[in-house]
TrEMBL record:
Its cofactor is Mn(2+); Mg(2+). This is 3-isopropylmalate dehydrogenase. It catalyses: (2R,3S)-3-isopropylmalate + NAD(+) = 4-methyl-2-oxopentanoate + CO2 + NADH. One of its GO terms (molecular function) is NAD binding. Mg(2+) binds at D223, D247, D251. It is found in: Cytoplasm. Binds 1 Mg(2+) or Mn(2+) ion per subunit. Catalyzes the oxidation of 3-carboxy-2-hydroxy-4-methylpentanoate (3-isopropylmalate) to 3-carboxy-4-methyl-2-oxopentanoate. The product decarboxylates to 4-methyl-2 oxopentanoate. NAD(+) binds at residues 76-89, 281-293. It comes from the Bacteria. Its EC number is 1.1.1.85. GO terms for biological process: L-leucine biosynthetic process.
Length: 360
């Protein structure tokens, strides 16, 4: 079977890390007899330079016609003016909206060989970190009504958190499905003591919980969740939450693992078409130097194989190969520690490729 992958290298280190991810998919393809077809298209700052828009029509069309989308990163100082009419990140919002990607899956894993990388005390991470944040991506306050007004001669502004039952249902359902594939524990994070929209979330969670009797459901207020993530991260498995809470908590969860260059993400909708990208940005400070960590992008391809193509064994093979290379002591500059072997972007990709070839 041929899997068509719209490939968007983007800006900064994007092309460097994408090259390694493509290398890994090709190795998997050879080993398991799959054909991956990469259709390279432009988005972000480089698209603004070339076409005047961050998300050209041709790119969007290619993504819609593909089985999944692989993205490096977009943005950089050249296009960073927040008042500019066209900005690189509009490409991401456009892709999510146009492809109907309403869910963002963000794993935060502390790999055993990288335990030292966590900024938390060793005693706090002794039990490990393996969290999956399931964040709603196309609703809530980021998309609700907003505006400016005057109140008794004083300038004011407002943003609105609004969710309808269908929007909540589809993301909570994905939370339950994700929990079923992991340890069957689901933490619903909200602010139901204050927000009416959170109370509606709880109603929907209670109704759907009846369809998943094996899943243990807990609720936590977002302020407490922010605290618990640094107090005892091992208590969390799957977290399901709204757009704004997920935005903040997923960044916090990734920070406690200590290595931004290691974390992948998946944006999913109601079809198999998903968008896969590392959580880091375009890292302009190290772009072009051949030192970026490609593992977050490589691990994003594992998520693609699992969630878009249903190739679970192949996905595990990539995860295992990454662990093997880390266990053997190889590190890029962002995760280096004493006594370990420093490697560059391409070498790291080669090591993972070799580990896959050698794997049973
Ligand atoms: P960043 O993630 O690009 O970089 C933060 C720090 O982490 C930098 O010091 C960088 O060198 C380092 N880093 C990031 N990824 C790394 C990797 N793979 N290997 C080694 N080191 C790595 O965040 P930033 O500096 O805030 O943003 C830079 C640009 O990226 C901005 O224009 C921003 O808008 C954009 N951005 C894009 C995305 C995206 O495309 N999804 C996400 C975040 C930021």
């Amino acid at each position: 079977m041929i899997y068509k992958i719209a490939t968007i290298p983007g800006d900064g280190i994007g092309p460097e890390v994408i090259a390694e991810a493509v290398k890994i998919l090709n190795v998997i393809g050879e080993k398991y007899n799959h054909e991956f077809e990469f259709n390279y298209v432009t988005a972000g700052g480089c698209a603004i330079d070339e076409f005047g828009v961050p998300l050209p029509e041709e790119t969007l069309k290619a993504c819609k016609e593909s089985d999944s989308v692989l993205l490096g990163a977009v943005g950089g100082p050249k296009w960073d003016d927040p008042t500019a009419k066209v900005r690189p990140e509009q490409a991401l919002l456009g892709l999510r909206g146009e492809l109907g990607l309403f869910a963002n899956l963000r794993p935060a894993v502390l790999y055993e060989p990288l335990k030292d990388a966590s900024p938390l005390k060793p005693s706090l991470v002794a039990e490990g970190i393996d969290i999956m944040v399931v964040r709603e991506l196309t609703g809530g306050i980021y998309f609700g009504e907003r505006g400016r007004l005057e109140e008794n001669g004083v300038e004011a502004a407002y943003d609105t958190e609004k969710y309808n039952v269908n929007e909540i249902e589809r993301i909570v359902k994905l939370g339950f499905e994700t929990a079923m594939k992991r340890s069957k524990k689901l933490m619903c994070v909200d602010k139901a003591n204050i927000l009416e929209s959170s109370r509606l979330w709880r109603q929907v969670v209670a109704r759907l919980a009846k369809d998943y009797p094996e899943v243990t459901v807990d609720h936590m207020y977002v302020d407490n969740a922010a605290m618990q993530l640094v107090r005892k991260p091992s208590q969390f498995d799957v977290i399901v939450t709204s757009n704004i809470f997920g935005d903040i908590l997923s960044d916090e969860a990734s920070m406690v693992t200590g290595s931004i260059g290691m974390l992948p993400s998946a944006s999913l909708g109601s079809t198999n078409l998903g968008m896969y990208e590392p959580i880091h940005g375009s890292a302009p400070d190290i772009a072009g130097k051949g030192i970026a960590n490609p593992l977050a992008t490589i691990l994003s391809t594992a998520m693609m194989l699992k969630y878009s193509f249903g190739l679970v064994k192949e996905a595990e093979e990539i995860d295992n190969a990454v662990l093997k290379v880390l266990s053997a002591g190889y590190r890029t500059g962002d995760i280096i520690s004493e006594g370990k072997t420093l490697v560059g972007t391409v070498e790291m990709g080669n090591l993972v490729a070799e580990a896959i070839k050698e794997g049973k």
